[in-house]
Amino acid sequence: MAVYMNFLDKYDTFLFDCDGVLWHGNTAIEGAANVVTYLLQNKKTVLLVTNNGTKTRSILLKMVHALLSIGDFPSENMYSSGIATTKYIKRKIKPGEKVFLIGSPGLKEIMDESNIPVVGYGPFEPRLFSEYAATKLDEKKM
Q1: Which residues are registered as beta bridge partners of 100?
Q2: CA quadruple 125, 130, 131, 133: dihedral sign
Q3: How far apart are CA 9 and CA 124, in angstroms?
Q4: Which of 74, 71, 45, 69 is nearest to 57 (CA)?
Q5: pLDDT in tens, the chain (142 residues)
Q6: Are 110 and 82 in contact (CB under 8 A)?
Q7: Residue 1 has what pLDDT?
Q8: What does the alpha-carbon distance between residue 32 and residue 8 come to, in Å, rounded to a whole number?
Q9: How far apart are CA 72 and CA 41, in angstroms?
C-alpha cells in the first residue's frame, strides 16, 4: 500500500482515456469509479480524454454520472478530439470565415457551442467526393 501512496503523492494531475480505460461502450471498467473518486476526494485534478469526436462535454458528463456514479465532476476537465479540433479551428479561422463540416452531429454541436459558423454539415461520402474530385481534375487537364 505504501508504494501506491508514494505514487499518488508524487502527482497532482491524472489523465485517463475514457474508452477502454474507464468504460467499454456502456459498461464501466471494474474499479474505475473507485480510482477516480479516490483521486477527486484527495484533491487531485482528474482529466478525462477520448478520441471519440462525436462526444460533447454534456454526453461525457452523463456517461461519468451514469457509468461511474460520480455526480460532481468538472465538465471543463473533459476533452474529446472534437473539442480539441474546435479549439484549434477557433484559433485558425478569420472573422467572417465559415466552415462546411464533413462530420458527425456531435462535432457540429461542439462547434455550435463554440460559436464557430458552420454553414452546412453532413457525413463524408467518399464516392461523391471522389466523383467530384475526378471531374475537377479532368477539367484542369483540358
Answers
A1: 120
A2: positive
A3: 47
A4: 74
A5: 788 788 888 999 999 999 999 999 999 999 999 999 999 999 999 999 999 888 888 999 999 999 999 988 999 999 999 999 999 999 999 988 988 888 888 888 999 989 998 887 766 666 666 666 667 666 666 5
A6: yes
A7: 72
A8: 16
A9: 11
CA distance 113 to 46: 23
Count CB atoms within 10 A of the CB of residue 109. 19
At residue 5, the pLDDT reads 81
Residue 102 to residue 122: CA distance in whole angstroms: 5
